[in-house]
UniProtKB/TrEMBL annotation:
Protein name: Transcription antiterminator LicT
Species whose genome carries this gene: Clostridium manihotivorum
Pfam families: CAT_RBD, PRD
SMART domains linked to this entry: CAT_RBD
InterPro entries associated with the record: BglG_antiterminators (IPR050661), CAT_RNA-bd_dom (IPR004341), CAT_RNA-bd_dom_sf (IPR036650), PRD (IPR011608), PRD_sf (IPR036634)
Length: 277
């Protein structure tokens, strides 16, 4: 690999044998080096190849302002998340999560913390991601000696959820808002039927999953296409599951959007299933 730019003693920008632009990190890897020189392979500890150009550019900017140890720490956290969650994460996670954690550590030194009012909902709706985030707190403590509060695990969880969607236009704030809206919809169902929902049931899990992806479509203004078959099925479901249909209309009113026949159909069926005693 050939050095293209030196950020600091521990981080450089280089080109590999396939002519890919990569960020390479390692203790002393840039010390007394010059652009155009070859990297000593034995000094390489971590390599970042970001395929999304915009994410790559922002990541390089980040390297100029954030301690390299924070970059390495967050890279390890992201690698762990990928392995445990077994999902693809958008390249922007390297920018957003690294920037977030580095800023949190700085604020922590100044005596500030960032409470998350949705921690209870986040724990409930995203248990796998929250478990990974708790492990991230362990890694942060091991690397820095600083134990961040559990609220910070909730904040990290939102970054992990956001990175599971391909579009880079999503914001962590949107995920937080959607999490609250999922809880609001569950409350509408709960109070309409005057029952406690079985949060361990498959129907509950499917309903929450449907709502999560429904909000992604809503956020991107993507609508499912209506067909005559959907209209026919909706009429059948409306007649068979009157209470569930009426509850769906309350949800539609809460959302303040006109739902397609297919969305109405799926929501009604999910509501019927999750409320079956």
């Amino acid at each position: 690999m050939i050095i293209k730019k030196i950020f600091n003693n521990n981080a450089i920008l280089a080109r590999d044998l396939d002519n890919n632009e990569v960020v390479v990190m390692g203790s002393g890897i840039g010390f007394k080096k010059s652009v155009g020189e070859t990297i000593e392979e034995k000094l390489v500890e971590k390599t970042f190849i970001l395929k999304q150009k915009d994410a790559s550019e922002k990541f390089k900017l980040l390297l100029e302002h954030i301690p390299s140890e924070h970059i390495t720490l967050c890279g390890d956290i992201i690698d762990y998340a990928k392995n445990m969650l077994e999902v693809e994460l958008n390249d922007y996670i390297y920018v957003t999560l690294t920037d977030h954690i580095s800023n949190v550590l700085k604020l922590f030194d100044e005596g500030f913390t960032n409470p998350n009012p949705l921690i209870w909902e986040i724990k409930k709706f995203y248990p796998k991601e929250f478990k990974v985030a708790l492990k991230a707190l362990d890694s942060i403590e091991e690397a820095t000696g600083k134990r961040l509060p559990e609220d910070e695990a909730a904040n990290i969880t939102l970054h992990l959820i956001n990175a599971q969607f391909k579009s880079a236009s999503n914001k962590v704030e949107d995920v937080a808002k959607q999490t609250k809206m999922v809880q609001d919809i569950l409350n509408i169902v709960k109070y309409t039927f005057n029952i406690a929902l079985d949060e361990k049931s498959i129907s509950y899990e499917r309903f929450v999953t449907h709502l999560r992806f429904f909000f992604q479509r809503l956020n991107k203004k993507q609508e499912l296409e209506d067909t005559k078959e959907d209209d026919f099925l909706l009429k059948q479901v409306k007649a068979k599951y009157k209470e569930a249909y009426e509850c769906m209309l309350k949800v539609e009113k809460y959302l303040e959007v006109a739902l397609s026949d297919e969305e109405q159909l799926y929501l009604t069926i999910h509501i019927q299933r999750v409320t079956q005693r």
